[in-house]
Amino acid sequence: MSSNERNATVSRRVLRGFDPARLTSLREGKGMSRADLARRAGLGGATVQQWEAGTRSPQVDTLALVARTLGVHMGDLVLVPRNERFPGDWRTLLGLTQPQLGSLVAISTSMIARIERGEVKLTDENARRLAHALDIEIDELVRSYERARNRPAGMQA
User: Fold this and answer.
1) Which of 26, 83, 84, 147 has a CA positioned 20 to 30 A from the CA of residue 156?
2) How confident is the model over 88-101, as pLDDT tens digits?
3) Cα torsion at 109, 114, 117, 121 (round to 10°)?
């Protein structure tokens, strides 16, 4: 994938639930240095160091690449308790960007973003499509949507 193609599919949102210490632990458990992981995942040398130091947050598609390189699931790197998840957290756990999910369910990226933030009504049809693509039950999606919709002011969804 070229950098232009990657940039076209990247969500610019800070990755909620990303645990830098967990990345360090998993990487070290696989016997890899930061440079090894960066090289094998096709990343710049400073990227892994910045993520582990907590000075930068990864983008979902790039972290998904790192998870595959490490042979782990996204849920091993992104920790959000099930009963606290928003719709975007379910997407993140599958390693999908908003444009990728939108393409899968034939919903615009901007509508995906508004649904994830709880800013628009979640229609029955959109709930059905999204739940299917996210591999969760519709009622689970609706609960996560309601959490996003009712979150405190200033809290990121």
Assistant:
1) 26
2) 999 999 999 999 99
3) -130
